[in-house]
Amino acid sequence: MTDDFQRSQRIETRAIHAGQEPDEETGALMTPIYANSTYKQDGPGDHRGYEYSRTGNPTRTDLESNLASLEGGDYGRCFSSGMGAINTVLNLLEAGDHVVAGDDVYGGTHRIFTQVYEQYDLEFDFVDTTDHAAVADAMGENTELVWVETPTNPLMNVNDIGALADIAHEYDALCAVDNTFATPYLQRPLEHGADIVSHSLTKYLGGHSDVVGGALVVDDEELDEEIGFYQNSVGATPGPFDCFLVLRGTKTLPVRMDRHCDNARALAAWLDDHEAVDEVFYPGLESHPQHELATEQMDDFGGMLSFEFDGTLEEASTVIEETEVFTLAESLGGVESLIEQPAAMTHAAIPREERLAAGLTDGLIRVSVGIEHIDDMTADLQQAFDAALE
Ligand SMILES: *Cc1c(COP(=O)(O)O)cnc(C)c1O
User: Fold this and answer.
1) Name one GO cellular component term (predicted).
2) For the whole model, what pTM was predicted?
3) Cβ(159)–Cβ(130) under 8 Å?
């Protein structure tokens, strides 16, 4: 639980202080890395809140409190990966339950839904979550969860969290939002009526491409206890060093995100004007189909964008091979700029016809805009475009 004073503070202050009191014994400013599996008890069951580190660890507790505060929720739970967090949401369901999810969710989310949980008799429907009539149509008596991502990958579609939570609640279903792309600095799904916020800490919250982790944040005590039961029973919990790294990351989340957003905005404008680029997908552009919704729902538009390079699959591959400031890699959200080609990498498993129908063209390039200098980014892309079109 965060106290009232802390609740009234701005996110920049909470990012640094929430859940992170100086160590009582030593005054150490930073949360120590509590590298122990077990804890001394004064008598059987007479302990100071910690018995065993799968169940709870003080470094993890500080991170869980910090993340809960950032999302404006009461309870946080951390996992060893974003997928560990998503898995735990599915643990809340029973055989025969039905889930409605976006048709452009993260690939790993689609995989765990269809290739892991369908075999345990959960049912999934993937629909265009910008089409609320389609979402309502997909809902049924046994729908227990609506899974929302916004903005989505890689076309940066923006979904209306409030409207989708309302549809979920009409059916007594939970609404979970994967807030990895936006981060709580830009968007807080609980404020819009979502029940669960899910994160891959691997991305912006960690922020330095040096740790894999996940988290869930909720407002409801009973729901948190249920999540805690599965967190402990399944055991996909993070180690203390990983928690320490994410805590180190969240302190600078606001300043990093400001730069990510400024750079992405400038890069989107540059690409939008470029003759070698057919289309730019960035919610901050007025031409984006959900620009208005993004303006209402988000405090800024984030550091992710994609664009359609006017060339073949091979020419687009040359672009991403030739960049030097942008590193060719999957993942996102670190301080360094990354570049990838969905058709040849993250979405290569989707048959070409299906991929094209979903708008994932051969020339589509996705970038995670880092916090380097914008002029170096545009110069780098220009030389890579030149090399590809030579
Ligand atoms: C990366 C990612 C995940 C999965 O997180 P891991 O930490 O890689 O397990 C889930 N959702 C989104 C949107 C992601 O980008």
Assistant:
1) cytoplasm
2) 0.97
3) yes
